[in-house]
Amino acid sequence: MSEKIKVTVWNEGRHEKSNKAAQEMYPNGIHGTVKAFLEKNPDLEVRAVTLDDPDQGLPDSLLYDTDVLMWWGHMAHHEVNDALVEKIKNRVYNEGMGFIGMHSAHMSKPFRAIVGTSGQLSWGDDQQEIVWNLLPQHPIAAGIPEYFELEVEEMYGEPFRIPQPDELIFTSWYKGGNIFRSGLTYYRGIGKVFYFQPGHETCGSFHNPYVQRILTNAVYWAKPNDFVINRPTDCPHRKNPVVELEEAKKANA
Ligand code: ZN
Q1: How many A from CA of 173 to the centre of ligand 1?
Q2: pLDDT value at position 239?
Q3: What is the spatial order of strands in the sheet that 167-174 belongs to?
Q4: Full-prediction pTM beyond 0.85?
Q5: Cys-Cys link to 96, which of 8, 54, 57, 228 (CB 3.0-4.6 A)?
């Protein structure tokens, strides 16, 4: 593995072009904001791209040089090329690339392809949200208190049509009475997946220090480890492992 963790922040980037409130909340785009807080960590090499960039922001040269892919999409999910989605899924399942879905990425083609269900949910008006930390011993929850408040966030409610998560780290309560599994993980193939709900385009969650800490923690958690990086991507015919170990001992003798 290269010494730096290579993170690519993919943002649809359309709300920031057409919605004044989104422009004012994120003048550098959601991708620029996420890139800026991640870059405070010198061991992360962060690239930020959008749907309207060449090759929809993810030419092979970038996708195959990405350890962790972060995804924010909403109004243009349908425009993302199916061939690109297949490549992303394959990178996660067979090559161990981490995938982090942010906010409305719950309905994105890559998230749905990777987890295997529709990702549909109930939603409602912006309101107070309290994020509860259910798994404080998890690396993604490091530095996060028992709960924290987001003054205003878009309501995402249960039932959330996802497979049972492998780990449920955060659950949110909304002032209107709804609840939502807002931070959860999946292990898919040899890759790791984290979904996190806060991050509506006109709410300030990406400026919140706890949200930033959670997403930063998630990058370190989701990166492939050395074993995964060096693993053959096909299905090799294995030698007898006992013979292989004996040969290695003789070679080292
Ligand atoms: Zn939203």
Answers
A1: 17
A2: 79
A3: 44-50, 5-11, 68-72, 98-102, 191-196, 179-188, 167-174, 122-133, 147-157
A4: yes
A5: 228
